[in-house]
Amino acid sequence: MRLRLAALFCALTVGGCDRGSPASLPVSDAERQAIADTLTGLIAQAYDFSGNSVSERLLSLYPDTGRVVAAAAGQVTTSKAALESAIGSFWESVGQNMRDPQWVWGDIYVDVLASDAAAVTATYSIPHHTPLGRPHTIAGAWTAVFVRRDGKWVVVQEHLSDVPVVPDSSTEHAHEDA
pLDDT (tens digit, 9 = 90+) per residue, 82-101? Predict the structure, then answer.
């Protein structure tokens, strides 16, 4: 009896692998390009700093429910509420103080993992002016795992890494003179 159950289990397992799930079916080059175009369009729209509602546009990339893992500035959050708080804090303390900010994408790499999953890694910079009118740039790299849920692409995991800030030599000399 055990031998029959083992044989049945193996047959079902192998048979299930032959058919594959929809996510494991091959993705054509045209589908890969369409997914890449969709995701790059979504992120360009979400990270548009012109106009109002920037925080809302940024949050539009994430699912309404379920876990969202985000790592940035040495911290990890695992809920949309925590992510919403972090984005709100960034925008209130940094974002709204930027004058004429423009999000500029550098290299963008989209790896389509399946018809409903993809990873995006990109570099970015945000040139702007400080409230005092000085030119300033924030920059870094972003990796996000997107999944398609109910027909909508959403980020379920992400990691942001900032380019290290180079000290302003003019402020160092000012401290030496003091």
Answer: 888 888 888 888 888 889 89
Q: Which residues contact 58 (CB under 8 A, 6 or more apart)?
A: 46, 47, 87, 91
Cα 37 from Cα 3, distance rounded (Å): 51
DSSP state string for the chain: -HHHHHHHHHHHHHHHHHH--GGGS---HHHHHHHHHHHHHHHHHHT--SSS-HHHHHHTTS-SSS--EEEETTEEE-SHHHHHHHHHHHHHHTGGG-BS---EEEEEEEEEEETTEEEEEEEEEEEEE-TTS-EEEEEEEEEEEEEEETTEEEEEEEEEEEPPPPPPHHHHHHHHH-
Question: pTM of the prediction?
Answer: 0.77
Condensed to tens digits (0 to 9), the pLDDT of residues 36-85 reads: 999 999 999 999 888 788 888 899 999 998 999 999 988 899 988 888 88
